[in-house]
Design goal:
By secondary structure, the chain is α+β, with helices and mostly antiparallel strands. It has two domains: 67 residues, no CATH class; 216 residues, Fumarylacetoacetase-like, C-terminal domain (Fumarylacetoacetate hydrolase, domain 2, Alpha-Beta Complex). The chain contains six helices and 18 strands. The strands form three sheets. Strands 1, 2, 3, 4, 5, 6, 7, 10, 11, 13 and 16 form an eleven-stranded mixed beta sheet that branches. The protein is globular, with a radius of gyration of 18 Å. Bound molecules: zinc ion.
């Protein structure tokens, strides 16, 4: 199953993820008001929604313009992000690969944005790209064991962990959260795909392209801490809430790790994709003054 946020309304996309011409079913209308139009609220009733969605196959749906898509989890209660979760990326960042647990930070939820659109580059900054697989949580989860962790996942989406490296690296210790939370620095989309749609949800290819040039390629099977381990680690401390978003880490190929370093510039176009989900497309503009 795939759900989307179309102009702010919860939408069920017809067919499976391979359907090239999916159609959009407005959930509030098709359910005769049983489910709210607000996409964020569906995660509070995720199991009930999934059961209803199985009965909605007879609804024909309508064609839609992809430009209308927004984030499938637009206002997550909490956003978790995992650092240094691929060994080659840890090395290019100048850090040792984590052994017992990876670093965890947040992207403040106000930075979450949709799969298409422009992003303003912070003045004086060095803004970098990080394609990532994103997990959206489907039920309140405390102290889950890794072997049970997939059951708390509503679905997967493509994420882009945009990062401003000057403020990230300023000061006596790297501070990730603020430097990764400028407006629209947290694209998530283009829709949410449930885990059952994948042959192996623990092995998905990720690609990031800058102006048509592939700059990052990886597979989530190379995560040092895979999704079950991440959810076990997080939920041992913090209850995971319905609609929470987890950025799982980026593979190597970021601009910071290059010689010389390479940063996003006005006019650049960034395409972020994950196998079996889809792609997001963003372009960058400078400050107005
Ligand atoms: Zn990241």
């Amino acid at each position: 199953m795939r759900i989307a946020n179309l102009d702010g309304r919860l939408t069920l996309l017809t067919g499976d993820r391979t359907t090239p011409t999916a159609r959009a079913i407005d959930v509030e209308g098709a359910s005769e008001g049983r489910f709210d139009a607000d996409p964020q609220r569906v995660y509070d009733r995720w199991d009930e929604f999934r059961a209803w969605a199985r009965t909605a196959g007879g609804v024909r749906g309508e064609a839609y313009e992809p430009a209308r898509l927004r984030s499938p989890a637009p206002r997550p209660p909490q956003v978790f992000a995992i650092g240094l979760n691929y060994s080659e990326h840890a090395a290019e960042s100048g850090f040792a690969a984590p052994d017992s647990a990876p670093p965890v930070f947040t992207k403040f939820p106000a930075c979450i944005t949709g799969p298409y659109g422009s992003v303003v580059l912070p003045a004086g900054g060095h803004t970098d790209w990080e394609v990532e697989l994103v997990v959206v949580i489907g039920r309140r989860t405390e102290r889950v064991r890794a072997e049970d962790a997939w059951s708390c996942v509503a679905g997967l989406a493509v994420g882009q962990d945009l990062s401003e490296r000057v403020s990230q690296m300023a000061g006596p210790a790297p501070q990730f959260s603020l430097a990764k939370s400028f407006p629209r620095f947290g694209p998530v989309g283009p829709w949410l795909v449930t885990p059952d749609e994948f042959d192996d949800p623990d092995d998905l290819a990720l690609v990031c392209s800058l102006n048509g040039e592939v700059v990052q390629e990886g597979r989530t099977s190379k995560l040092l801490f895979g999704i079950p381990a991440i959810l076990e680690q997080l939920s041992a401390v913090v209850p995971l809430l319905p609609g929470d978003v987890v950025f799982t880490g980026t593979p190597s190929g970021v601009g910071m790790g290059r010689v010389p370093p390479r940063w996003l510039s006005p006019g650049d176009e960034l395409v972020s994709s994950v196998e079996g989900i889809g792609e997001m497309r963003h372009w960058f503009v400078g400050q107005e003054n």
